[in-house]
């Protein structure tokens, strides 16, 4: 079997590509409108939301590209797992964009404190309301794939944060219109920036967990060991490693020590069945050893 052998797994990100495409079209078309109105009205809350909308456009575009790249067959012979990790890298890019936008907004908001700012509250309210409607539609679209794909989840988080930004923009417009105080716009923009940063950190931790090859969320390594040890013929389990390749695709390796009279092939088939049926791990590489095997003792790590 060559290094670039494909295993024909169903790919969660590819199944939800159409959701990303529709959301990309909606968000991308509205971004220009929001930015222009924000500059004309002088609203930092609107400009900050437009900046976050721009981050959405880039993040959704990266997510779309990643779903395409992830399904390409490897012709180089160098990527034995294919390009599935492209989705995780796209999610990481989303995190960096969200952090960048939040830092910019916070810096701008702090710089405006104490300044007299004239805000066109009517324009802010209209654009904020339209933006919220677009974000709600995008949230409904992306929510359906957010539990299956970390890539789609990253885009979903982006749109959720943007929806909160749109609510903030509407709130800023109402407060400025009713009080005549422009600093409300700055305060709301600051709150939006902090909220976006928090969401970025939450997603970033998930991305790092995948890249760090942590045990997938919801799996207990000790329970997997117990289930494998319960397979008839298995005397011991060691060197068990479980990690996420990309969203919904889990990989495991383990060494099974079998009793002398155990049929190795039967043990392997039963153990793979346990991994697949009990833990949703379809790609498990299991090595069968006898009690006398010393290969693992000779390993340096």
From TrEMBL:
Signal peptide: none annotated. Keywords: Ion transport, Membrane, Transmembrane, Transmembrane helix, Transport. Its main location: membrane. The keyword Transmembrane applies. Residues 216-290 form the Cation efflux protein cytoplasmic domain. One of its GO terms (molecular function) is zinc ion transmembrane transporter activity. Residues 20-211 form the Cation efflux protein transmembrane domain. GO terms for cellular component: plasma membrane. The chain crosses the membrane at residues 20-44, 50-67, 88-107, 119-142, 154-177, 183-202. InterPro entries: Cation_efflux, Cation_efflux_CTD, Cation_efflux_CTD_sf, Cation_efflux_TM, Cation_efflux_TMD_sf, CDF/SLC30A. Belongs to the cation diffusion facilitator (CDF) transporter (TC 2.A.4) family. SLC30A subfamily. NCBIfam families: CDF (TIGR01297). This is Cation transporter. It comes from Nocardioides currus.
């Amino acid at each position: 079997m060559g290094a670039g052998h494909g295993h024909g797994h169903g790919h969660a990100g590819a199944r939800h590509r159409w959701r990303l495409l529709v959301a990309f079209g909606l968000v991308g078309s509205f971004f220009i409108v929001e930015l222009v109105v924000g500059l004309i009205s002088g609203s930092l809350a609107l400009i900050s939301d437009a900046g976050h909308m721009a981050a959405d456009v880039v993040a959704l575009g990266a997510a779309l590209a990643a779903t395409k790249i992830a399904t390409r067959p490897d012709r180089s012979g160098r990527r034995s797992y294919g390009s599935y990790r492209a989705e995780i890298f796209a999610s990481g890019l989303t995190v960096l964009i969200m952090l960048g936008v939040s830092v910019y907004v916070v810096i701008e908001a702090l710089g405006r404190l104490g300044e007299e700012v004239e805000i066109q509250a009517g324009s802010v309210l209209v654009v904020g309301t339209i933006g919220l409607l677009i974000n709600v539609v995008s949230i409904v679209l992306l929510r359906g794939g957010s539990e299956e794909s970390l890539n789609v989840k990253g885009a979903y988080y982006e749109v959720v944060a943007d929806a909160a930004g749109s609510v903030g923009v509407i709130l800023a417009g109402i407060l400025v219109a009713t009080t005549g105080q422009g600093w409300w716009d700055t305060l709301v923009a600051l709150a939006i920036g902090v909220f976006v940063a928090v969401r970025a950190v939450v997603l970033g931790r998930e991305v790092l967990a995948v890249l760090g090859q942590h045990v997938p969320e919801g799996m207990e390594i000790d329970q997997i060991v117990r289930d494998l040890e319960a397979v008839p013929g298995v005397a011991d389990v060691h060197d068990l490693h479980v990690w996420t390749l990309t969203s919904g695709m889990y990989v495991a390796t383990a060494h099974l020590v079998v009793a002398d009279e155990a049929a190795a092939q039967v043990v392997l088939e039963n153990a793979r069945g346990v991994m697949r049926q009990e833990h949703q791990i379809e790609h498990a590489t299991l090595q069968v050893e006898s009690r006398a095997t010393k290969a693992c003792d000779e390993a340096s790590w």
